[in-house]
Every structure is written in structure tokens, then in C-alpha cells.
């Protein structure tokens, strides 16, 4: 089934044939309406094969089909409603295809916003929000953002997810704007969203979010800030370590390590080095020690030998082996080799084994280079 | 500033980083736990925590219970109270039980997690487990999105964690034999591999209802986009909806294509294009197409991978075990069939009887999938289905579904993990998690 007149074909009419274009447009609209009715009929067919074929051809039906399909999807008509949902997904996919026009995509997205109305079922509304995340742009953001205060918490969260998925400043600012007044899970979800988007424009809002007695909100904001990898700033309020449970302490440490990783990626390894050294010197759990060693490999390769030698004396097998693996990945040089040779006499047997392993690896690297 | 001379006291007074206050990291674990045993050494038994103990999770629990030489289960978590209760009985009351897996992750006595939840939990749960210091055995497929897989790879690397994904076909003797045969050139260059698998089911026509009392549906959904409870789309039936299970291509395809990438020694790169076709189901809520064809075109070296549902059973597979699915390798000088791809993997006699030359390419031989994992927890070497390899496999499954879902051929840059010239497809490489969950 072909839809004979699409926005694209209508645009290709030469301007001087205006009357003809209008006439054709009138004819086109009638043809489209007839095609649409036929398509909707097939979507509701009691024959599964007919429905499946119609679903697969739904893409070109475009914006005009969205509202009727939304009504059908909400009509509790069993397989016909399910087919309508499928068709909506294919319309969204088609609108976003390479070579599709921005106008087509905008029209489809605008049509999806009509399905956000409460007269549609929750399934239809949340599906529309999902499809808006892959078709929407700044124009649809206000209508989605309005649902951040919907009475249904699932709809509120799906609106947040939709905004989080739409690229661009408008959706991001909508997330930021909603944060101060949001409560409960939505507040934390919005904080997480800003962290995931990793846009420095969210820094102020996130730092403000740390000024709370709600520990879960505070920790979420700190984790999100860490993802931004911004330079040092005192506006973030850190909880007292004494106020944290061990899992919360771990979350804080993970946030520090995340920040250090981001600082290294942004070309500020000195900031990262401070964190990794502090973690290594103060943490007791082996995975944090391992993370510090691994982080130092990138942030401070000249320092990591010294730290790895300390790690060889650790009681945990994982820490010792990780130290060896970190060293093995380094490019060998005389000073590094000397440091290991000097550590060898005082090392315990299991550490000596690892030192020899590293030296052998370095030797093999030199031989093949 | 000399970091080695920096004392805790000085940490409290100096200005610090973006997170604001003093960079003070006291003992991260409480005093009581300092007396607890540390991580396993060469001869220590590993303590496991199991998350998700229905279906495959029950299998893993029973496996660990019957292999005390490998590990001991000390904790179990499940969102379904009936699963949890049954698992507790299986363990004879010797494991702590949790409705919330985060409490299990907080236990210092858990060394490794066995994750056997529905697929939509694999990514976030594995990342959280790594950040909590646990090594992870996670059921296949590794992930549901490209972004999840990348986060799992990165987090494992960042914390030095060992992850084994449960595509146990690679650990089967027949998979090793096939890899050994093909990588030693016995059928020449292989420009084409075809996979066959029976159709996806259709169904779930029944109405949505309230969830049963024993199931914490909010926890079961976790990061998944909200959908109403339906008994035919929850628990084991998660497989047939694209967002949670991805159909057979992501379910058993993660097994079959894992063996393909292993045999072809192709874990380290991805396809250049993906094209999927197939009609949607004719009825019901299940979303995976009953019949499906996907063609993956790889470059440098050039070869094609064809996934076919139902596909065609090769003649050579007629006498092989578990032959309802599998892969056939079309070499320039011969062919080879590998049936199955999961725990029941078989191959032709010529491969099983082949002995490679001394100087030929060596193929890693796993002792057994769980055993391989537990060995690697001690050596800290990468297991056979490590997260990098598993991400490569899951990516094939995900990309195939994306091509089908978008109804178009997709061009893929595996180095950057981005589609070429398809902005909408790139938006679907990740999906924001529901509620307060996040990668």
C-alpha cells in the first residue's frame, strides 16, 4: 500500500503551477484520507496476517495516522489495539529515517504530543512519550515537561525519561527547571538524568541539590556532579563520612573515583592523581585499592610503580595481582626496573613471584620492541 | 604537594575538588568487618551471592551447591518472595535472603555475584556489583543496549573486576574443537557463516492484571520502561518483548553467535552494516518477529554472518545433538557445522578428531564455564566469555533488533560504537533507566 501524496512530494511541485498544486492538493488530501481509512481498516482486521502486513507498512502513514491509531490503541480492542501500538512505533521509526524531512518528523512528533492527553490510556500516553524521545525536538519539550507534574508517578517518570532522551538544550533546561520543586523518586531521577547527560550547564543545579539533609538526594547529586568532571569547586556540600553507612561510604568513594576518571579524560591528571593516592592510602576495601592503582596507571604512570610496590605487600591476592597487571601494561624503563629490583629482597614470596612476572613481561616487551 | 606525606589531618584542612569538602577517605568498612576474611587467595573457597533465582538462577544455585570445591552460596536476592523462599529451602537455611539485591551487594562476605535476572537488569546490576567490589557471573546476553555493554566493560576495567557472561557454549568441547579446526585453516578462509534457529513464539493475548502479592513488580521492572503487569510478559516470558528480552536473537542468539565469534576469532571488532527483515507477530503482546533474517557484513577481514529464523537445518547437522539451532561455516575449501551453541553444543566428527599442528594457532580451552570463572577470580586473568567478548556478541543481537525495529539497513562504526548517518538510530543506543536506577 502506497500513500500517493506525502509532504515531500507536495513540496516538489513547481511554484508556477500553484492552481494545479492546489487542485492536486485537494485531490491528494482526499486520496490520503481514503488511504488512511483503508490502512486503519487493515490495522483492525480480524486477520492476523493482514494486521501484520499493515503494521510493517505503517511508516509512511505519518502524522495523520497518529491520533486515529492512538484512539485505537486506547480502545481496549485486543489485537487491534496492539497493532495500533506497533504501527505508531513504525511511524516514529519512518519519520526519523535518514533522508526523511525535518517537517515530516516535526509533524509526527507534534501528533504524538496529542496522545499525551489524559483521555488516552496510560499505555498509550507512555508509548507516546517513548516515541517522542526518538522523534522530538525543542518544540515538543513544553508539552512533555508539563507531564512532570502528572498525577500518575509512572507518567511523571516516563516524561522525565522522554526529556532525558531528547537531545539539545531545551530538554536539558526542562530537566534543570523541574529539579528544585521535584520530590521523592522523581527528584533523584532528575538528578541522575542531569548526571547522565553530563552537561556542565547542570552544575549549578546539582550543587544546589547537595544542600539538603536528605542523604539520598545529596549522594545522588554528588554522583551526578562527579560525572561532569569539572574543576574543583567548594559549592558542593559533602556529608560527613561519620554520617554514612558503609554502602554510602562506598558510593562516595565511587563518586570520587568517577570524578578522577573524568578529570584524567579532560586532561587534568593531577587532580585525578590526588584522588587516587588518597584512595589508595586510606581505603581498606580491595576493589577501591585496585581502582586507585588502575586509575594511577593513566593519571600518573610515573607514580604508579611506587604505589604498586606498596600494593605487592597487601594481604589481598586481588590487590597484588592487579598491581602486577598494571605494571605489566607500562612501558618498561630503567628507573621502573630499578624500583622493582630494589623492592624484591624485602618482598614476601607471593609478591616476589609477581615482581619476577612483571620483570619478565618487561623483558619480553623490550626484546620485541 | 607530596602525596606520600599527606596526612589525614591535612586532608581535612586543604581545599579540594569539585565534590567540595576535604578529600578524607577513612576506613571504608566498619571495624567489625576488618576481622572478616579477605578476598580469596589461591586456595580459598569463593563466596557467592545469587541475584535472581528463578529459571536459570535456580540452575546456578544448584550447581554451586553441588560443587562446594568451587564456591559457597552465602546470600540470595530475588524480587519474587516465592522464588526467594524456595531458594532458601534449597540452601537449607545457610544463605541470607534479601528482597532487595542492594542489601546483598553491601555484604562484605560476598566475593562474587551470580546474576540470573531478566536481561533488562544485567547492565545496571553488573555495574553496581563491580562498584561494590564484586566479581560477576552474569547470564547472557550481557546487556540490552550498546551503552549498557560499554558501561559494563568500562566499570569492570576501572575496578579490576572479573566478569563472565553465561554463554557457556564457548566452554563446550565441541566449540573448542570447531575453533581449533577452523582457526587452523582446515576449511580455508571463511567468507560466510549462517545460523539457523526456530521461530519466535507468538502469544500473550490475555489481559493485563495486578501483579501477584509475592512479586515486587516495581523491583522486577527496575530500569525497564513502565509497562503494566501481565503474567505472560513477566518472569521467563520477558524474553519475547523487545525491551526486556529481545526475542530469540538476543536470547539464544547470544549463545549461537557467541560460538560464531569465538570460532571466527572475531571478538575484537564488529560489523560494518546490519540489515534485518521480518513481519511482526500477528497477534498478542509478544513483539519479536516469528520469522527473521539478519545479515551482518564484516569488513577487514570481510565476511558475512546470516541469522535466520527459522532458517534451514544443514544436512550435516541431522545427526548432531541439540540441532534445533546452530551455525554453519562456509569456507573456501570446506564447511563445518556446529549445532547448539549453549550447554548442548556439538560439531562434526572431523573437527572433534582433528589435532592441530604444534605451531598452529592456539585456541583457549575452558575447563567448564563456572570453573573457568572461578579460576579467573584467583588468577585475575580474563575468562573465556569476558565482558569485552560478551559485549561484542550482545551488540550483534542488539543491532539486529534495532535494524528490524527501525525497518532499515544500518551502517555501523564499531570503533566509535555509533551508527553512520542515522541520528535516530544513535538515540536508541542507550535508553534512560526507569525510576532512580541509572548506569
Overview of the structural elements:
The complex is a heterodimer of chains A (369) and B (439). With 369 residues, chain A is mainly α. Among the domains of chain A are: 1-77, no CATH class; 191-197 and 204-238, no CATH class; 240-369. Helix content of chain A is 69%, strand content 0%. The longest helix of chain A is centred in the N-terminal third of the chain and has 26 residues, at 18-43. Chain A is elongated. Chain A starts with 6 loop residues before the first helix and ends with a helix. Chain B has 439 residues and is α/β, with parallel strands linked by helices. Chain B folds into 2 domains: 38-168, NAD(P)-binding Rossmann-like Domain (Rossmann fold, 3-Layer(aba) Sandwich), CATH 3.40.50.720; 170-365 and 386-427, Dihydrodipicolinate Reductase, domain 2, CATH 3.30.360. In chain B, the strands form 2 sheets. Chain B has a 9-stranded mixed β-sheet with strand order 13-12-11-7-10-9-8-14-15. Chain B has a 6-stranded parallel β-sheet with strand order 3-2-1-4-5-6, sandwiched between helices. In chain B, strand 2 (71-77), helix 4 (81-90) and strand 3 form a beta-alpha-beta unit. In chain B, helix 11 (253-263) packs across helix 14. The longest helix of chain B has 20 residues, at 387-406. The two termini of chain B are 35 Å apart. Residues 1-37 of chain B have low confidence and may be disordered.
Give the termini distance of chain B in whole angstroms. Answer: 35 Å
**Total helix count of chain B?**
15
Shape of chain A: elongated
Shape of chain B: globular
CATH architectural group of the largest domain in chain B: 2-Layer Sandwich
The amount of helix of chain A comes to: 55-70%
Mean pLDDT of chain A: 92
In the CATH hierarchy, what is the class of the largest domain in chain B? Alpha Beta
User: What's the β-strand tally of chain B?
Assistant: 15
| Low-confidence segments of chain B | 1-37
The proportion of residues in beta strands of chain A is under 5%
One letter per element, helices H and strands E, the order of chain B comes to HHEHEHEHEHEHEHEHHHEEEEEEHHHEEH
| Structure classification of chain B | alpha/beta
Determine the mean pLDDT of chain B: 90
Instruction: State the largest interface.
Output: A-B, 99 and 78 residues
Strand content range of chain B: 15-25%
Give the topology string of chain A: H per helix, E per strand.
HHHHHHHHHHHHHHHHHHHH
Tally of discrete structural domains of chain B:
2
